[in-house]
Amino acid sequence: MANLSRIVVGSVAIVLAATNATAQSRGSTIEALVTVQDRDLNGAQRASEMVLTRTTQNKDSEEVVVETYSPSMYAGRLALSERVRRVTTVTSDGSRRTIEEIEEPPHGSPHETMRVVRRSITTVRRSGPDSYVTEQQVFARDVNGRFVPVQTQIERTSRR
Fold first, then answer.
1. Are the C-beta atoms of residues 78 and 69 closer than 8 Å to each other?
2. Largest CA distance in the chain
3. Cα-Cα-Cα-Cα dihedral of 106, 110, 111, 112, to 10°?
4. What is the side-by-side strand order in the sheet with 96-104?
5. In the chain, what percentage of residues exceed pLDDT 90?
């Protein structure tokens, strides 16, 4: 009869992370910076992610840009990995239109210029005294790099 033995190898990882946040206001622009720090294998503290949010408000529009920086191929450096730009405008009839674009570097080429990979357009308009219609269209790039609709959604809400 064969002698069977089993070896179990396990590891326990304890992740300690610290988050720092700062905010600044300049006129109608507010900037907020959040940095997540943890420790590497040698116990040295390092930034593992950084998120910069910039909000600009005008009379009838608001622009929010969120930039996410993640570890790059170079040790100890963070590189821009995603940018989300959201512009909301309000029309004279009270309708709201939001255009959101997500930018990323091309896959396999992190040092090239960021490009828009997804776009969504959301419109909220009043359809009655206590009801609204929300229309959302989502576009993504096809294999030829053109934006094509991938999702269309219409939602009707009422406060009754």
1. yes
2. 86
3. 0
4. 17-26, 29-39, 45-57, 61-71, 78-90, 96-104, 115-128, 131-141, 147-158
5. 41
